[in-house]
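Dear Dr. H.,

I hope your travels went smoothly. While you were away I took the liberty of generating a structure for the chain from your last submission, since the lab meeting agenda had it listed for discussion. I wanted you to have the full record in hand beforehand rather than looking at slides cold. The sequence, exactly as received, is reproduced here:
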Amino acid sequence: MPTGSTEQARAADPAEAPAVAAIDPPSAATRSTALAARLEPFDSYWQAPDDVEKGYASFFEYYRHNYLPRMPREKSSRILVISCGPGYLVNMLRENGYENVVGIDSDPQKIAHAQRRGLDCTTARAFEYLAGSDQQFDAIVPEQELNHLTLEEQIEFLTLCRQRLRSGGLLLVYGLNGANPLVGSENLAHNVDHFNTFTEHSISQVLQLGGFERIEPLPLKIYVFWKNPMNYVGLAVTGLLELGFRIVYKMYGKNVRILTKKIAATAVRP
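The corresponding predicted structure, in token form, is as follows:
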């Protein structure tokens, strides 16, 4: 093992890293029209398929597997979904008994799909909504990748989310994983509105800068459609690849555990 590898790994581990003070955002909140992203606005959901209605079934499974286990236990919890698009996550939570879920998205056409299903979703810009609201939520889930914000915008956005959460409230965010050797660099390069990628260490750092604690990075799995036999093939292949990547990283003195295409993290307002 290279000299100093143990120290490097320890310094990279967020559990052992020194505490990082939260950075206060600029006095005047950034407005959505001034954000750096140009082609894919941060406050609008972009993953919806061409057949929007079909997406309610496919994304239901994705969110049920990756998100539902992280949500508050109390079904009466007030949850805000930012960049909700047609309301796929809002719909999944409602179908699983959550009574107070609201969604916002800057695209009125996407919101129209959600409203036709009776979902509590409205057209709003993310930064303006958070800065201008006095509501308090038990959980906030942004449904656009944090990579669509610059570092300064990320810190400001996370700070606004923290202000809208109750003490002990949960934030669940996600972004593109730069640690995967196959797709990490392509994740960054294929879209001019991607300003960075994350690893489990850097996503923890940006959440610390936003003022959050009890940060837990986690992988986002894409092979969660158990009725499809090919799901198990994809799960096996990607699982073996990720195991191999972890071994190689370890040989280079890097403590990298999460190697999925996308990475998420939960964090708690102090």
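Two observations you may find useful: Residues 45 and 85 are 5 Å apart (CA to CA). The first strand starts at residue 78 and ends at 82.

With kind regards,
E. W.
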